[in-house]
# Entry
Amino acid sequence: NAGVTQTPKFRILKIGQSMTLQCTQDMNHNYMYWYRQDPGMGLKLIYYSVGAGITDKGEVPNGYNVSRSTTEDFPLRLELAAPSQTSVYFCASTKGSSGYTFGSGTRLTVV
Amino acid sequence: AQKITQTQPGMFVQEKEAVTLDCTYDTSDQSYGLFWYKQPSSGEMIFLIYQGSYDEQNATEGRYSLNFQKARKSANLVISASQLGDSAMYFCAMRGRGNAGNMLTFGGGTRLMVKP
# Structure
C-alpha cells in the first residue's frame, strides 16, 4: 500500500518553463488536494478535487492548473514558472470522514 | 471562512519537560475537526492527534494530548516528557463540516526546539 506518491521529489525550473507535478493515490480516496508551503510557513491550499472530473480553486490558485481524470491521479500543472512559485508542494487525500494522507512533497525552485 | 492561529513562532523546552503549543481557531461551523501535525526537518507531515468538536473527552495519543476548550475556541497540543526527537515544526489544522471540499486549513506553525 503506497499511499500518496508524489514525483518528482526535487526540481529546478527556469523562469517561464512549464512542468507537471504528479500525484497518485492507491486508497480509493475521493478527495485530493494540492498545498504549497513557503519557508517557515503553514500550508496553503492551491486546488482540490472531490472526485474524478471535479476540481475547484483553493486559497492560492493563480499560476496553477489541475485535472482529475481518474480517482487515483491529481496532477498539478505550472504553465509559466515564476520565482514566487518556489516552494514545497504537498499532495494529500482523504476518504472524507477519515484522516488525511500526505505525500512526501516536491521541492521546487524557480530561477 | 475558517482561520487557525498559532501565536508562538518558536519555542524551547528542556528535555523531559512538558510543553504546550497554542492553537486558536475561528469557524462558524457547529461540527468540525481539529488536527495536529508534526513536520521534522526531513519535511514529511506526520499526523499526531485529532479532536472532534462534539468529543466530550480531550484526545490523547501516547505522549500527546489535546487541551480542547470549545468556548474559548482553543485546541492546544501538550507534549509530555519532551524528547530530542520532538524538535520539529508543529501545525494545527481544522476541517469544517460546512466546507464541501473537506479541506484542511492550517495555522502558521510553531517551531519546537528541545534542549538536552
